[in-house]
Design goal:
Length: about 280
């Protein structure tokens, strides 16, 4: 049984106070244009609003989230400095999404992608042949520790009931300690080491060419990279630069990115996103 070409997105886990952003529209518009999916299922707790949402909404299958996923314990943020920072920055919703996306794939199967994704080339049918599919990310450097494999859960493909997805989900609650990726990317990396035959791991360049470093973000948001024939989608790492108050990773923030920025910009992101804005105009 193959993986269905149905894309799942999770959004709006907290109340929406700003209009649906252009980049979120472009995520969904590029998915529809490039991948020609059977369906795009938009899972939400609080429905977005605004002109970009009004434009894309009729093309989506909306699915209301009315549960808190089992194993997601916000009390764990008190256990570490990193956890307390995550809660202070208000990005703990990303962890709830980590649990929800696994439950969705286990229940329905399909392709999950984060909302800060831009699709560039169609995901090949051969990726959907059977086994769980995920991309490797550049292993984070931890002072004094050896490099450990890490699998990024921003793009995942699975059949309903997939054994790798099930084993990972069963370990997530115990692994969740309030830190950024103990239960997600790192736990998946550990499981990969013991069950490598359960999944297909794709090269980081396919989804994560522009890494979560100041240099990677500069290439994505400010500079212009050449055409990459092995680039299927890009992850924007939006939590690192979205807020105008955070400038340690990039001088670009979400408030700067509008139609003019996309249509006239020379950055890698502007160039790759432009066709989907022009197409939907």
């Amino acid at each position: 049984m193959s993986i269905p070409r149905v894309f799942h997105f999770v959004f709006g886990l907290r109340e929406q106070r700003e209009p649906f952003h252009l980049l979120h529209y472009l995520c969904l518009a590029s998915c529809l244009a490039v991948n020609r999916p059977e369906a795009v299922v938009f899972h939400y707790r609080h429905e977005p609003f605004g002109p970009w949402w009004d434009r894309i909404r009729p093309r989506l299958e909306l699915r209301k989230i009315d549960v808190i996923p089992e194993g997601f314990d916000p009390g764990r943020y008190d256990d570490s400095q990193e956890g307390r920072m995550i809660r202070r920055l208000g990005i703990d919703y990303a962890h709830e999404s980590d649990f929800l996306r696994m439950d969705i794939l286990l229940s329905e199967g399909g392709i999950y992608a984060d909302m800060d994704t831009l699709f560039v080339r169609a995901y090949p049918d051969e990726w959907l042949a059977g086994r769980f599919v995920i991309g490797e990310e550049y292993a984070p450097l931890q002072p004094g520790e050896p490099l450990r494999p890490s699998l990024c859960n921003a793009v995942m493909m699975a059949r309903a009931g997939d054994p790798f997805a099930r084993a990972w989900r069963e370990r997530m609650a115990a692994a969740f300690d309030g830190r950024w990726d103990s239960h997600s990317c790192r736990e998946a990396g550990r499981l990969w080491q013991s069950h490598s035959d359960w999944l297909r791991v794709l090269p980081s360049a396919y989804f994560y060419r522009y890494g979560s470093t100041p240099e990677g973000l500069a290439t994505l948001l400010e500079d212009s990279d050449g055409d990459r024939p092995d680039l299927y989608s890009i992850h924007l790492w939006a939590h690192l630069w979205w807020d105008a108050a955070r400038r340690d990773m990039s001088d670009v923030h979400a408030g700067m990115i509008d139609e003019g920025w996309i249509l006239k910009g020379k950055s890698t992101l502007a160039r790759l996103a432009r066709p989907f804005l022009e197409e939907g105009a």
